Amino acid sequence: MTNLEVPGRVSISTQTFPREKRLAMWREIYGRNIGNFDIEPIGDTPFQADVTFHALPGVGIAIGSRSAAHYRITRELTQRSRDTIVLSILRSGVATTSQFGKEATCGVGEAVVLTSTDPSTSTLHGYGSFATFVFSRPTIEAIVPDLSSRLARRVGSDNAALRLLARYLDVITAEGELASAEIARSASSHILDLAALAIGARRDYAEIARQRGARAARLSAVKSDILAELDRPDLSVEVMAARHGISQRYVGKLFEADGTTFKAFVIAERVAKAYRMLIDQRYGHLSITRIAYDCGFGDISYFNRTFRRVHGATPSDIRESAIRRGDR
Q: Which of 35, 49, 110, 274 is 20 to 30 A from residue 27's alpha carbon, by CA?
């Protein structure tokens, strides 16, 4: 994916092509018109591939999977390539990449850094999945001064910035946040920060990136986990800190920088979840007490007081109003 100019979010898959034309169409549409490489399948397994593209300000992203194959950028094809740097994270499978006479083999959670203006071969040895980021080379070179020495080298799964980048990508794509132009710009900045840290940003930029990109990624990851665990009455700073390998104090600072507190965020989300359940007919068979417990409130009196403070009405009032309006 070296010439990505796909606006917004676009997905393509070989499953939508006629079976007998899948490889030929993938080579033409994805290989020549988007990715700018030749594709050579490995083995006799029917060729399969799918990719979802996200175009952010200054960052191209491709998330997908494919069967075993060589993806080659030839000397001829480099003439059509834009001057970009590619950071590709392997999500499953085993991959080998070669460029400048160097070869890097990546396992799950590892990545490789390539340039699009020099020949390279990227090989998935079996069915696998990936997340690939594309940046302007001048942008990366400005913050990674020894970039040339880092090309075609493996970035290990023990790289903290790389792990944060992968997690951050999962959060923002799963929640559909990239649909907002404002959030897309912010996400682009955070992705650049994390990618630069993973590749090896210069010291002064690295400090800025840690304060900006790493903090945003941590906060997004913690919030995502909170939303998934709202029904746990024991949900706490201690639980989240242990899960993310950070101190309780740092968790508190993340929320303070966001203008709130851990406790306030949890309560607000629990009340919001309860409200959604109260007006949704799918939960009409549940008692208000059951809804309170399902949203993590262990005390029904506290739930009622908190809910009324937020919405100016009791849970029963909200449910009855929804029934009268025909929402339920």
A: 110
